[in-house]
Every structure is written in C-alpha cells, then in structure tokens.
Amino acid sequence: MNDAIDFHTSSRLSDCRIITLEKHHHENGNLSVVESGNELPFSINRVYYLYDVPGGVERGGHSHRQCYEFIMAVSGSFSIEIFDGAERRTVNLNRSNCGLLIVPGIWRVLDNFSSGSVCLVVASETYNEADYVRSLDEFMSLTASKRK
Ligand code: TYD
Fold first, then answer.
1. How many CB atoms neighbour CB 119 within 10 A?
2. How many whole angstroms from its chain centre is CA 108?
3. Is residue 58 in a domain?
4. Residue 11: inside a domain
5. What burial class does residue 62 get, using C-beta atoms within 10 Å of its C-beta: 0-12 exposed, 13-18 middle, 19+ buried?
6. 47, 48, 125: which to mutate for ligand 1, most atoms within 8 A of CB?
7. Does the C-beta of 51 come closer than 6 Å to ligand 1?
8. Whose CA is nearest to atom 14 of ligand 1?
9. Which atom of ligand 1 is nearest to the CA of 132?
10. What ligand 1 atom has the least distance to the C-alpha of 129?
11. Number of domains in the chain
12. pLDDT in tens for each of the 148 residues of the chain?
C-alpha cells in the first residue's frame, strides 16, 4: 500500500459522475448491463445491494481509501450526498439504468430511500474494513489540504 494513490488529497467531486447505461428495450421488459472496461473505469470485484431500508434512515457515512463504487437505484429511489472535503453535491437516483460513479476519497451519505427501493453497488475491491474511513473527523483531517 506504500505506493497507493492518496485519493483523499487528490479526488474532487468533478471526478464523480452519473453514468447512464444503455437500455435494451423490449416489450417483455428492459435490460441494462454493467461491464468492466465498458461502462465502468474499473474492474468489478464485488457486488452488494441494500434493500428493506426503513424510511428515514441514512446509510453510508464513510469514504474509501482505494475502492471505486458505482451506485444504482435499480428499483425505487434515494439520494446520495457526496463531499470531497471542500464541496458537497446531492444526486438523486431514480432510474434503473443510471448510477453514480464515486471515486475513492469521497465521503458519501445515502438517504431518502423510497419504500421497496433497492440500491445496487458495484465495487472495484473486495470487502476490506481497512479501506474505510468511517470517522468524519479523520476524513476532514485527510482532506485538510483542499481547504487551504
Ligand atoms: P456498511 O459498510 O456499514 O454499510 P453502509 O455503509 O451501506 O451503511 O456495512 C454494513 C455491514 O455489512 C458491516 O457489518 C460490514 C458488512 N459488509 C460486508 O461484510 N461486506 C461488504 O461488502 C459490505 C459493503 C458490508
């Protein structure tokens, strides 16, 4: 990890973007594809999903040191607030073929989950608790150079 990029000092909100997936429309239903190298600028190592999220709760509340994530509202809707240590932006996801690419070093909070919504996350790394920054104080300290 010694030569790992310090994303907390380099990542900006502008590095995060909404990606719209092609919709293969069919009268019997639609199909969209997420594929490494094509839609996503990383190789997929993990997929997880949030479901049965009670109304009014927040998820996330962390940043990652090296992990890229692509977050989709495959069903229903929710909001994601992203924060790079200097700027904040809120993105509302409510279409099954759109997602938000979040680069490492960005704080994110997910909320406003609609009833029955499903949040699908495609990640560049397998699960590693050491990759998480879960303390906002630590995040603020890691991103202090952006506020000078
Ligand atoms: P957490 O990352 O805290 O969820 P969120 O940020 O969405 O609120 O994860 C919740 C629990 O699930 C925590 O105990 C860690 C575990 N977990 C895994 O075991 N593997 C995973 O890939 C993820 C994302 C979480």
1. 24
2. 7
3. yes
4. yes
5. middle
6. 48
7. no
8. 129
9. 2
10. 15
11. 1
12. 557 899 999 999 999 999 999 999 999 999 999 998 888 999 999 999 999 999 999 999 999 999 999 999 999 999 999 999 999 999 999 999 999 999 999 999 999 999 999 999 999 999 999 999 999 999 999 999 999 8
